Amino acid sequence: MNLSGLPNEMRKQLRDSLIWYALIAPTFILFAIFVAYPTIETFRLSLYREVATKQEFVGLAHYARLLGDQIFRSALLNTALLGAAFLLIVIPLGLVLASLLNNLKYAPNFFKVVYFLPQITSSVAIALIFGYVFQPNWGLLNNGLRALGVDPLPLWLADPNYNLTGSRAAATILAVYVALGYYMLVTLAGLQAIPQELYDAAVVDGANFWQAWWYITIPNLRPTFVFLIITGSIEALSRFGDLYTLGGPGGSPARSLQTIVMYLYQTAFESNDFNLASATAVLLFLIMLAVTIFNFRALLQREFSRRD
Amino acid sequence: MSDLTLSKTTAERATLANFFRSHRRSTQFKQIVILLILGIGAFLMIMPFEWMLATSFSRSANIAMPRVVRFFPADPSLFNYQVAITNLPLPRLYLNSFIVTAVATVGYLFFSALTGYAFAKGRFVGKSILFLIILMTLMIPFEVRMIPLYFLIKEMGLRNNLLALILPFLAGGFGVFLMRQYISTIPDDLVDAARVDGASEFTIFWRVILPLCGPPLAALAVLSALWRWNDLIWPLLAISDRNMYTVTLGLAVAGRSQGTYTGSALANAALAIIPITIVYLLLQRYIIRGIAMTGLKG
């Protein structure tokens, strides 16, 4: 490398940097090819339209079309509803299980292994099994409910309506079943990081179990909850594999389980409209960004204002 | 201290002993209640798996299903498994999944550690901006760049090639970030001593740094393996040849196309789940520790 045109000190600095550039180069080349290029290309494709194998600039036309598209809007609603229901159930339930596990002396490891099992075997495998578990006539769940005397039996995946025994409820039960062990483990790690002295001091001050729980446990778990809500929201927004296994890219029955990513997949690889699908991808990106920023501001506001 | 103990009256000792006994009884009762609740939960967690096995071994499961909960098949038979192995070339799918997971994970660990080392211990022009770029890649979900990536792989002639499932995942922002954080905690003295001895930066990385990075590497290995093994959307795009399917892809496609053949579909699921479960039970300590350490999963 010819650096003779530069001042001496700068030349030495750059020469010393070279070895480090060599070490990080492979990663940056991989990022350039597989991350940066496709991302920029997605944005570009979303502004074009294919006319007789030629790309023609159409501006924001695809975005206007998406926002007026009933199917896209219902996919957006499904994604939001399923995500919200999932987080509202799995975080409190994970907290309860983690608290119980934290107080258990015998075989805590056994329960960790069992509760985490569905996470390992992939949501696709679990969704395949649950497709049959939810079968209304002879599925495991309804056979169990029948034994308990429930009548009439829920239709689960055969019912696309908005109710607590329909397909969306089934999809939420599935998601909670798969993810519960993970939420429990992360919450447990948060619980175990709370210093025991805080509880000892509370006992000295005469606090009972519930007071200690409300004034020590919950506030100290705040970072854990923030982390779980932020990563959980992103994951819920990109939900695909389990619902594809249950109801195909259309999210049957009656598109009740179609998420944004499934809509994107169907638009691109079944309707072959890659430009419209790219616009969907950009919108998904913007939604994720907005939700993450909102979560940060809403959940960490107290931390920021406290520092002022 | 001993004076205090000696000065206790018999009555005081009796109340103390009583207190401890009743305390022990109440904690034991609490333990039983906790065990009971967690036990019911564990039963509910395992039941779908048990039901899958029972149904997959039932000869009549493709025709008629019982309307009661059965934990043992009334008509045990291997028939569904015979159907299942003709449905999908499962040994081949396992080999594919194994190659993809192993190669992608080894590459991911290597590039994460190498780049993390440069950002933790290196001094070079533009370091903070370059690190910011690494962090920015974390903001871009895979789904957002997947369409151009599909065309790229097609242009490269890599459709139906396992390399398509490996190359895009060799380097990742999260791995670099985690390794940089960990390597930053290793004392500079170690690196400087090796440098004085005339070791090159790569030798220092390979001989000094890497052997100290066991915990984060194990955690990253678990994550990468889970991500690669369980991925569905990308194999769905990149692979259409049945012989190149991964286990997860085969399961999603075969499971869907079988529709009502409950017994053989669940036999397929069992064949996909059982080997993973065995690996999981063998490695559970490392997997659970890794998850708790990074707080991320598949």
Walkthrough of the structure:
The complex is a heterodimer of chains A (308) and B (298). With 308 residues, chain A is mainly α. Chain A has two domains: 8-45, no CATH class; 64-307, MetI-like (MetI-like fold), CATH 1.10.3720.10. Chain A is built from 13 helices and two strands, in the order H-E-E-H-H-H-H-H-H-H-H-H-H-H-H. Chain A has helices at residues 8-45, 61-68, 70-102, 108-120, 123-133, 140-147, 167-192, 196-204, 209-220, 222-237, 241-247, 260-269, 274-307, and strands at residues 48-51, 54-57. In chain A, strand 1 (48-51) and strand 2 form a beta hairpin. The mean pLDDT of chain A is 90. With 298 residues, chain B is mainly α. Chain B has a domain at 88-258: MetI-like (MetI-like fold, Orthogonal Bundle). Chain B has 14 helices and no strands. In chain B, helix 3 (79-87) packs across helix 14 (262-294) and helix 4 packs across helix 8 (173-184). The relative contact order of chain B is 0.12. The chains are: A mainly alpha (308), B mainly alpha (298). The interface between A and B is large, with 93 and 91 residues.
In short:
The complex is a heterodimer of chains A (308) and B (298). Chain A has helices at 8-45, 61-68, 70-102, 108-120, 123-133, 140-147, 167-192, 196-204, 209-220, 222-237, 241-247, 260-269, 274-307; strands at residues 48-51, 54-57.
Q: Helix and strand layout, with pairings?
A:
The complex is a heterodimer of chains A (308) and B (298).
Chain A: H1 8-45, E1 48-51, E2 54-57, H2 61-68, H3 70-102, H4 108-120, H5 123-133, H6 140-147, H7 167-192, H8 196-204, H9 209-220, H10 222-237, H11 241-247, H12 260-269, H13 274-307
Antiparallel strand pairs in A: 1-2
Helix pairs in contact in A: 1-13, 3-7, 3-10, 4-7, 5-11, 7-10, 10-13, 12-13
Chain B: H1 2-7, H2 10-56, H3 79-87, H4 90-121, H5 127-137, H6 142-155, H7 163-166, H8 173-184, H9 188-196, H10 201-209, H11 214-230, H12 233-238, H13 247-258, H14 262-294
Helix pairs in contact in B: 2-14, 3-14, 4-8, 4-11, 5-8, 9-10, 11-14, 13-14
